[in-house]
């Protein structure tokens, strides 16, 4: 029986589907609404076989200069059982090509790389060997329906995911010994408390720490209005957790949460919070908070070769690897777009005018570039503000 793809226009139905199928928080309705305020358009698609739901995907479209039209991007989706993944992707691609006519579709699924997780301290060669090994039939089938791995990654596939179905002692036992000590000390610190940020005044303190953390570490962050929109559009799926000393916010971690997964968007700590090592207790408090809701996985959102990632690695004895970024061309122009994307990203580091010039060059110099200067779905969509969450 052939698969049938239909749009979903009801938020309650959509979010219930994401929760029931173990979907990722970046597939929730509110995340699509957030991105729709910033150069994207969101569409939610359900895939049925007869009366049975076999797949779903929230698709984000980014406008590109003519003649490329747009790019379709599925962050941490779609949702489908392992045996159905390839045919769900094939059905989604056919529907998207017929109705939106984008240059191509990029997916970054929440699907574990076969053979993962890896032991703590795994090297890049270890990861390469794992990806190069003989792959299971379901992943070969994904390739047979036209998808191939891409180096144009937005959401980092190399990450750390803590299993919250364990009891709390087992979770903490996996921490580095000094990390366990810092967690216990922070919980006993005088005048310190952990909890959800609920007031606008405390949110303003969080945003100030976020800006200062970015300045200190040398990365870019979204505007304050963008962060307020996360709170407003995702509602209780946005969970901003902080550590206070007295009335002062000294550390925070910002999560988005589906029934199965908690995903770190941002994190930051003030100099006072670092001195008290409250970022350690904050991480464990956040895990406890999510576990109490029945959430099964706590995703630290990416590991790089930097100090922030070294901090994250203290909270587990393993490291996770997802299958990464996969593309399927939907137009003969896709190779042109794919080859130009790294140049656009390089130009973005020099400022928006340079990026627009590169896009103008891409479209043959025929007039001004699109108002969406990046045109490069994952770089513009990386929810961490182009850096991993920190401690």
TrEMBL record:
One GO-annotated biological process of the protein: cell wall organization
Gene3D superfamilies, sorted: 3.40.630.30
PROSITE patterns, per database record: FEMABX (PS51191)
Keywords tagged on the record: Acyltransferase, Cell shape, Cell wall biogenesis/degradation, Peptidoglycan synthesis, Transferase
GO molecular function, one term: aminoacyltransferase activity
Chain segments carrying region Disordered: 359-391
Compositionally biased region (Low complexity): 368-381
Family matches, as Pfam families: FemAB
Family (UniProt): Belongs to the FemABX family.
Name assigned to this protein: Peptidoglycan bridge formation glycyltransferase FemA/FemB family protein
